[in-house]
């Protein structure tokens, strides 16, 4: 197997924003040549799949400047400095939707866009929900929306869900339902 | 319904990289207050789900500086200036894997991380593959890997696939297989 790894030779902070940093790395390629990598540093965060006692998935609608439109997404948020992952998931769920969760567990982590961003997201499943008051932060305008899991494949395949972390969370939750029902296209009886 | 939209008041280029631009917008919120948005401008691109005549999904392994490791991903790439989407998908497939596709169709588009990046990806399904020589660009080190679709749920749920666009593409392809087999956990007979 050919070695694929790159070695970072130097790293320069090109621009420091309040949330994001723009870093430029000089790397040594597997063949000894050099190349430049533009990297956005992001603190990382959580995404939550909140499932209500009525089987509904609790989602949020918010305006996304970068996409220039209102998107339907799973609740999510950035890790505060030094914050525990579970606490972060429960906090973001409460702030954005008002719900508290009696049961929460991490499914796995992934990179939203590993080609240029360090952003790593931890995906949580939240159950035993109790409704309370939404606690959005200053400058956050979020509307809660609820969908039945039956609608997931159609919403995703018709391009109605446009946010990658939300597609990941919804499709994974749908697969968990399929597995519970013992549905597998490759082992049909 | 409360209005969620923001209005951009001013937009300033904070840093221009070769690939990415760091933009800072001043926006007016729905309540009339102002806020700052840090946005990364990205040219957008394609992701391809290539399925071989042996039912295998053709994937790529490459080192990702931002993730600090080698990741298993679907072939993907950035749109060249003015390039047609289909052409881009066929070009990236050929460059990264060596395969040409007799049949290609776009499934839908999504944002990798709409909270701060304009990156929009077009997801393609590529079939009728023919094998040829890989044509990686200078400085690209990519190894081809193939997986059977049976493995998708396990690989994703165990966190073995860490790239969001790849999880999206694989889970969507698995769902297409389930639909073809008429498997639906909500309409069991």
The computed structural class of chain A is alpha+beta
Q: Supply the number of helical segments of chain A.
A: 3
Low-confidence stretches of chain A: none
> How would you classify the quaternary structure?
homodimer
Helix content of chain A: 10-25%
What is the number of beta strands of chain A?
10
Question: What order do the SSEs of chain A take from the amino end to the carboxyl end, as H and E?
Answer: EEEEEEEHEEEHH
Query: How is the biggest beta sheet of chain A arranged?
Result: 4 strands, mixed
Shape of chain A: globular
Q: Report the span from N to C terminus of chain A.
A: 39 Å
Strand order of the biggest β-sheet of chain A = 7-4-9-8
Instruction: Supply Rg of chain A.
Output: 19 Å
Strand content of chain A: 35-45%
Q: What value does the average pLDDT of chain A take? A: 95
The greatest interface between two protein chains, and residues involved on each side, is:
A-B, 87 and 87 residues
Keywords (chains A, B): Hydrolase
Cofactor (chains A, B): Mg(2+)
Protein name (chains A, B): NUDIX hydrolase
GO cellular component, one term (chains A, B): cytosol
Sum this structure up briefly.
Chains A, B: Its cofactor is Mg(2+). Two copies of one chain form a homodimer. With about 190 residues, chain A is of the alpha+beta class.
Which properties best describe this structure?
homodimer, 189 residues, four-stranded mixed sheet, three-stranded antiparallel sheet, 19% helix
């Amino acid at each position: 197997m050919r070695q694929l790894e790159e070695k970072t030779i130097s790293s320069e902070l090109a621009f420091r924003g309040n949330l994001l940093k723009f870093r430029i790395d000089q790397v040594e390629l597997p063949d000894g040549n050099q190349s430049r990598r533009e990297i956005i540093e992001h603190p990382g965060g959580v995404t939550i799949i909140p499932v209500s006692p009525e089987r509904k998935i609790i989602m949020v609608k918010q305006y996304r400047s970068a996409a220039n439109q209102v998107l339907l997404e799973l609740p999510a948020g950035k890790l505060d400095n030094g914050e525990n992952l579970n606490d972060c998931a429960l906090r973001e769920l409460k702030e954005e939707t008002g719900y508290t969760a009696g049961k929460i567990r991490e499914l796995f982590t992934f990179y939203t866009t590993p080609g240029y961003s360090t952003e790593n997201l931890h995906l949580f499943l939240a159950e035993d929900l109790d409704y309370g008051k939404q606690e959005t932060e200053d400058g956050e305008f979020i509307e809660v929306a609820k969908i039945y899991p039956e609608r997931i494949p159609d919403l995703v395949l018709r391009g109605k869900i446009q946010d990658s972390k939300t597609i990941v969370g919804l499709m994974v939750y749908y697969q968990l339902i399929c597995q519970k029902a013992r549905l597998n296209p490759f082992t049909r009886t």
